[in-house]
Design brief:
The structure holds 2 protein chains of 2 kinds. Chain A is mainly β. Chain A is built from no helices and 11 strands. In chain A, a hairpin with a 2-residue loop joins strand 6 and strand 7. By secondary structure, chain B is mainly β. Helix content of chain B is 0%, strand content 46%. Chain B has no helices and 10 strands. Classes of the chains: A mainly beta, B mainly beta. Chains A and B meet through strand 4, strand 5, strand 9 and strand 10 of A and strand 4, strand 5 and strand 9 of B.
Chain lengths: 110, 114
């Protein structure tokens, strides 16, 4: 099975940069995904790292290091609308469904 | 186009009653997933459907939970003899075949068992 660890809460100010870490224990997986979920809303896909390294999508970047069992989501030029919960997720070899971390609640302050 | 839809949006039921939750995936998405999210927690996988293949039921927490899917369209999740610990948001997601890492979620059904 898998275990994914994320910080429970992170606070940052508008315009700043924040990094949300995800460490995992799994014997084998396809890659690391990140999802955003606003309060009362549905999770929405942000990014996917199949390979080690950095993936950039606008203000958001995601990083994976399989050798370190570690990944992170980097949010730049924070906006108030970025206040939400962020989940990392992995898909085990041979499975189709995702296993999610418990989520990091990001609060952006003015 | 239309996203994933779920109904009802909210369901309040009494302990011991059966409930049925519905999911309409995005048209053309052959893969469909059900997850459960308790308050302040991550998503727990329940069941996965892919076309006409046998579903992956490995996440169902007990035999009170079951789900069906008609072809590549609507799915229903049934919880029999509901318990208070079943209270959660039940989320449905769909994806194109081969893109399981990018799933599109519905708004969920908030189930409250009194």
């Amino acid at each position: 099975g898998q275990s994914l660890e994320q910080p429970s809460e992170v606070t940052a100010v508008e315009g700043a940069i924040v990094q949300i870490n995800c460490t995992y224990q799994t014997s084998g997986f396809y890659g690391l995904s990140w999802y955003q979920q606003h309060d009362g809303g549905a999770p929405t896909f942000l990014s996917y790292n199949a390979l080690d390294g950095l993936e950039e999508t606008g203000r958001f970047s995601s990083f994976l290091s399989r050798s370190d069992s570690y990944g992170y989501l980097l949010l730049q030029e924070l906006q108030m609308k970025d206040s939400a919960s962020y989940f990392c997720a992995v898909r085990d070899m041979g499975r189709r469904a995702l296993t999610f971390g418990s989520g990091t609640r990001l609060q952006v302050q003015p | 186009g239309a996203g994933v839809s779920q109904s009802p949006s909210n369901k309040v039921t009494e302990k011991g009653k059966d409930v049925e939750l519905r999911c309409d995936p995005i048209s053309g998405h052959t893969a469909l997933y059900w997850y459960r999210q308790r308050l302040g927690q991550g998503l727990e996988f329940l069941i996965y459907f892919q076309g006409n293949s046998a579903p992956d039921k490995s996440g169902l927490p007990s035999d009170r939970f079951s789900a069906e899917r008609t072809g590549e369209s609507v799915s229903t999740l049934t919880i029999q003899r509901t318990q208070q610990e079943d209270s959660a948001v039940y989320l449905c997601a769909s994806s194109l075949q081969g893109t399981h890492n990018e799933q599109f979620f519905g708004p969920g059904t908030r189930l409250t068992v009194l």
